[in-house]
Design a protein that fits this description.
Blueprint: H1 3-13, H2 18-28, H3 31-37, H4 45-50, E1 58-61, E2 71-74, E3 85-89, H5 105-108, H6 119-130, E4 135-137, H7 139-142, H8 148-156, H9 158-163, E5 168-170, E6 186-189, E7 192-195, E8 199-201, E9 211-213, H10 218-221, H11 246-254, E10 257-261, E11 266-270, E12 273-276, H12 305-319, H13 335-345, E13 349-350, E14 353-354, H14 358-362, E15 365-366, E16 380-381, E17 397-398, E18 405-406, E19 416-417, E20 422-426, E21 443-456, E22 467-476, E23 479-487, E24 505-517, E25 530-540, E26 546-555, H15 556-560, E27 565-571
Parallel strand pairs: 3-4, 3-5, 5-10
Antiparallel strand pairs: 1-2, 1-4, 6-7, 8-9, 10-11, 11-12, 13-14, 15-18, 16-17, 19-24, 20-21, 21-22, 21-24, 21-27, 22-23, 24-25, 25-26
Helix pairs in contact: 2-6, 11-13
Length: 572
């Protein structure tokens, strides 16, 4: 341990030194939690692997040989003492803080002063040293932030970086770099913050023992517990800001172990389970029906490919509700997870969807808060500069945490893809690690198409739908039979927040598959179940390509009256 490093630590925590503080914290953790922070012989293979892992391209060296306190090391050109390293998950916030850029790279590799680091970075370095780990990876310092080539290359390596991390440190309670990890413990009760220190209650009878009470941590555990799946039960982002960030989703997913420095207690998220200081999470077990995304990659292993694709839908559904500063990062922030899935699936990755499950993937829906005035609410929009085609889920900007992506067909055991649907070709890279730029992605498909006319509904319509489709039917006794079907639009407003008017548009419905809606009536037989056609609603542009504007579930008898045409379409 370097004396000068100890001196610099004490600048922030005078009179307590950071290493002493961290050592004290480790010494006072419950045995089950402390035992899981250090790699044990009975740890899962992913955790053991992290102890003998491969270093990222660059790391921070806490104990360089020339007695400088901290330096940035390029592991590709330097000889490193060990391959063991730790990572940091943190919120960037709106602060201007130290980063590595082209003009500062050489300086970072010579010396990084302690005073130049934000508190979260200082805490993470102290935690790593207290655990005896020499190298730490922090995105802001280990990626050249203004070098697009380096940024894309390192983003594509996220799966390797976090999967090989000995321990991922999470500054869960800090909204930016000022909050740190080792802050005074607090808990939010109603709208007030209070201390978590136990309160002594003296018994009235002297023969009875003293009683200590503290606030319950049960609601804190909900965000980590596999038993809680409703987002309304999750804590608000301003209480645990890190958990609302999309980039952090894959960091937690990939890391064998993440140590959360929550405002109230330390929580360990591990492939083998959950641990916390109060032991409230120790009894939480992982079951196949309630598996956490962060309990391991078991669902992407084995012969059942449907389970693997189902797992992907759950990943996207949770990821879509999280926040991004740069909306163009939506797919990039999931590259690491996609890379892990691709290694198990061996399938082509298509801008957030999988070729082997394209039918269910294309039928994504947008969840909406209910009730809502859909026509006046700006729930979704597209960026003025497209960063994804219209057919994958990643093309939308979702404006509230109550709006997300859901895959109904992915949760429907009765769904079957239409046999006439074929993928002919695409200009997208099939490699998940290379899918950083798909704005001009085209998917050429062949399938059954039915034409219709779209009419907008009046604002505040009682049906709660945005628009209605008019289908021409058969001529019967000189009468034209017209069928209608309601649906919601993917986007209601332009990037300038102006209401989109599709009224009177000629559109195409591309059949993707079908499903069965079981009857609720007790006196009806299984044969009375209703069959529904699932289709994409497409609008052609001036170049003759087709944009997705919505998705449709329509009774089969409605489509039976329509004459379908087999067409080749370029989806953009």
């Amino acid at each position: 341990m370097k004396d000068n490093l100890m001196t610099e630590y004490s600048l922030l925590f005078d009179p307590k030194e950071l290493l002493t503080l961290m050592s004290h914290l480790l010494a006072n953790l419950p045995d089950p939690l402390r035992g899981h922070i250090i790699v044990q012989p009975d740890c899962p293979p992913e955790v053991k692997k992290s102890a003998i892992s491969q270093l990222p391209s660059r790391v921070l060296d806490i104990e360089p040989q020339d007695d400088k306190s901290i330096v940035l090391v390029d592991t590709r050109t330097s000889v490193c003492e060990t391959n063991q390293f730790m990572t940091l998950s943190h919120c960037w916030g709106k602060l201007q803080f130290i980063q590595t850029r082209k003009d500062s790279l050489d300086a970072r590799m010579k010396h990084i002063t302690w005073e130049s680091l934000l508190r979260t970075f200082q805490d993470a370095l102290g935690i790593a040293q207290a655990l005896g780990v020499r190298y730490l990876w922090i995105d802001a310092l280990c990626i050249i932030q203004d070098d697009s080539v380096d940024w894309k290359q390192e983003s594509a390596r996220m799966a390797s970086i976090y999967s090989n991390s000995y321990l991922n440190i999470a500054a869960t309670g800090s909204a930016d770099g000022r909050g740190g990890c080792l802050s005074p413990r607090t808990i939010v009760c109603g709208s007030q913050k209070s201390s978590v220190k136990p309160i002594l209650i003296k018994p009235t009878c002297k023969s009875r023992p003293d009683i200590y009470v503290r606030p319950s941590f049960e609601h804190i555990h909900h965000r980590y517990s596999t038993h809680i799946k409703h987002y309304s039960s999750f804590p608000k982002g301003d209480l645990v800001p890190l958990l609302s960030r999309a980039w952090v989703f894959q960091e937690r997913y990939l890391a064998p172990r993440t140590l959360h420095f929550h405002p109230s207690e330390v929580i360990l998220e591990c492939k083998s389970g959950l641990r916390c200081e109060c032991s409230g999470l120790d009894s939480v077990t992982f079951h196949p029906s309630q598996e956490s995304h962060f309990s391991g990659h078991a669902a992407t292993q084995g012969p059942n490919f449907k389970e693997k694709f189902d797992k992907w839908f759950k990943v996207v559904e949770e990821f879509s509700r999280l926040s991004l500063t740069q909306q163009s990062d939506r797919l990039i922030a999931l590259i690491g997870v996609a890379t892990v899935f691709q290694s198990e699936l061996g399938d082509d990755y298509l801008a957030g969807l999988w070729k082997g499950d394209i039918a269910r993937g294309l039928l994504w829906h947008i969840t909406r808060p209910w009730p809502t005035d859909t026509l006046s609410s700006i729930l979704t929009r597209r960026h003025e500069t497209a960063f994804a085609p219209t057919w994958p889920w990643a093309n939308l900007i979702l404006n509230t945490e109550e709006v997300g992506i859901v895959f109904p067909a992915g949760h429907d055991d009765f769904f079957a893809g239409d046999k006439r649907l074929r993928i002919l070709e695409t200009n997208l890279s099939s490699d998940a690690a290379m899918s950083t730029d798909c704005a001009n992605g085209v998917l050429r498909v062949k399938g059954a198409v039915v034409s219709a006319i779209m009419c907008k509904r009046d604002q505040g319509d009682s049906q709660g739908k945005d628009a209605v489709l008019l289908f021409d039917g058969d001529v019967d006794n000189d009468f034209v039979l017209i069928s209608t079907s309601d649906f919601n639009l993917d986007v209601l407003h332009t990037e300038n927040n102006e209401l989109i008017t599709y009224d009177g548009y000629f559109i195409h419905c591309l059949t993707i598959g079908k499903t069965i809606e079981a009857s609720d009536a007790e006196d009806q037989s299984p044969g009375d179940n209703s069959e529904y056609i699932c289709a994409l609603i497409l609008r052609s542009n001036i170049s003759g390509a087709y944009e997705r504007i919505g998705v449709l579930d329509v009774p089969k008898e409605t489509m039976d009256h329509q004459s379908s045409t087999i067409m080749e379409l370029d989806l953009i």
